């Protein structure tokens, strides 16, 4: 069963990642596998419960085709 993600209540970083996943037609599980991070860690990052390392942001950015600096800006609310 597919879950619907409400992007309006996510922090800017989670919104950016979620929006890009939706554009690509991909799911969090795919991104976690591609970025070599756990799905729980990715979920925590997207929901603002985990603060990602710069290395994790770089690994997340690559499969999404996003500049890592855009993810850093979103992390600090400057989306």
- How many beta-strand segments? 0
N to C succession of SSEs: HHHHH
Give the % helix. 55-70%
Major sheet: size, sense and barrel closure? none
Regions with little confidence, pLDDT below 50 for 5+ residues: none
* Shape by Cα distribution: globular
Tally of individual helices: 5
Gap between N and C termini, in Å? 31 Å
Task: Tell me the radius of gyration.
Answer: 11 Å
**SS-derived structural category:** mainly alpha
Provide the residue-averaged pLDDT.
90
How much of the residues is beta strand, in percent? under 5%
In brief:
Helix content is 62%, strand content 0%.
Can you describe this structure?
It is a single chain. Helix 2 (28-35) packs across helix 3 (39-47). The model has no long low-confidence stretch (mean pLDDT 90). This protein has five helices and no strands. It starts with 11 loop residues before the first helix and ends with a helix. The chain is mainly α and 79 residues long. 20% of the residues are buried. It has helices at residues 12-24, 28-35, 39-47, 54-64, 68-75. Helices cover 62% and strands 0% of the residues.
